[in-house]
Amino acid sequence: MLENLCNQCIAEMLLVIFLISGLIFFLAYSIYPKFLSKKYNLDDRNPTPAHTLSDGIDYLPTHRLVLLGHHFSSIAGAGPVVGPIIAGLAFGWGPAVLWVILGCIFIGGVHDFSALVASIRHNARSIAEIAKVYVSPRAYRLLLSFTWFALIYVLIVFLDLTANTFKIDGGVATSSIIYIFLALGFGISLYRLRLPLKYATIFFVSLVFLSIWLGQKIPLTNIPVLFGDKSKTWAIFLLIYCFLASVLPVWILLQPRDYLCSYLLYASVAGGFLGIVFGSLISTGTARFSLNYPLFLAWNAENVGTLFPLLFVTVACGAISGFHSLVASGTTSKQLNKEKDARLIGYGAMLIEGLVAIIALVTVMVLTRDEELTKKAPLVVYATGMGKFLNVFGLPREFGFSFGLLALATFILTTLDTATRIARYIFQEFFNLRVKETRYFATAMTLILPTIFVLITLKDKQGNPLPAWKVIWPVFGATNQLLAGLTLLVIAVWLKKKGGKNIFFILLPMIFMLGITLWALGQLIFQYKFSLPGVLAVILFLLALVFVAEGVKILK
Description:
Radius of gyration: 22 Å
Low-confidence stretches: 1-6
Distance between the termini: 67 Å
Number of helices: 21
Order of helices and strands: HHHHHHHHHHHEEEEHHHHHHHEEHHH
Strand content: under 5%
Oligomer: single chain
Mean pLDDT: 87
């Protein structure tokens, strides 16, 4: 009796932590974006670039819910799942939960919102172009170079993660391919056949969920083996997909794919949320879910490093991500219909991503420290957790596992196509190439390095093969977070030159992110030394230092 009561109390602790996190996010969305909107003087009477520069390819006024789907799906990827799980397993779930909540509200949300507003106020220009105007032409070149390399990291990590997911579960691969064709059909139905959004959504979203069941019935497992591994075969397929998604008009694949993906993502968030709630309350002798994993483990984790500063770069997109500013100023700003839509799309999407990160951390909290699953890849930990959560409603755990993997694979695909398109923009911008005529060449040049990385076999010091994402992730996280700090620096300079006062809401996050990420990148340079990741880390570190010096000089 006493043992059952204790188990129930532990389960309720898990539920309380989870619900309080969600409540804090809700209150933050109700208050802080209003403060930011006043700081930027948002007004729906101001025409956005989607209207003034509309071309039907990149610039297109878009319904706020459709654009939220595109933006959220593009920024989410695997970052808010992989990073928090790695950090939670290494340091304990407590520090990770605290950083996700505080980071999303006061840094990540501010960063995303501000990047979107800054872009629409400058004809949907990139953050680098804004740096050219307010910092210096040299800063413009430096930030373009830094950003392009950061996107290469994004492509390498997420290409490898997706290819390995398809290898693990052929049903997920089948569903993902069906899903791409459904997106094409949705885009044509919406923009060419003029089918009302409501009816098109009901029809195609139903087919998306049907594809989950169909994928498990006809899994793609018997595929040709290229370069000695099925994951390499899938990597080639994904590279071809990225190329096409980058050069096709935004309305035919990128935007409809991301919109449909958002419903899959919302379903996974809702399923995880409700599963955690009911799984913590329902008891059959012992609590279904309970808080098992330690709150805090160590200041120094063997496979990750020291909590300060590496927690903040490991969690990555779960709290703040420089990649978000590239999406906000690269594709989203070209589709924003009204200025005040930035509140939902810029700030709101970051808080939803924070909730995804909290759900990912709950999949760690319910594990025991000595459980075999703690040694598995983060994607497996998350998918197993989703299987447990959905099993509360009677769904087989195998279905929940596949659903979790498919949701992650779908998020990653949206990140891949958006990252490729933005990297193409940057390449064209750097060399002053015409957009329409050179988009094929610029996309091909962007995909060269990711192709090399995902097709070669990387090894550890003992000569054992390692997945590319595992080798790249620490440097990717530091680079991604440093890009966020540089973006905040550009926005601070813009606001200062425009006569802005009391811009502490930008300055404080900027100082924190620049300090913590330069520190982390410096540690990683010593760790990797003259290996390929180490050399790239040195290049990015030096680019960032010169850029920071330029920006600080202007601020003074």
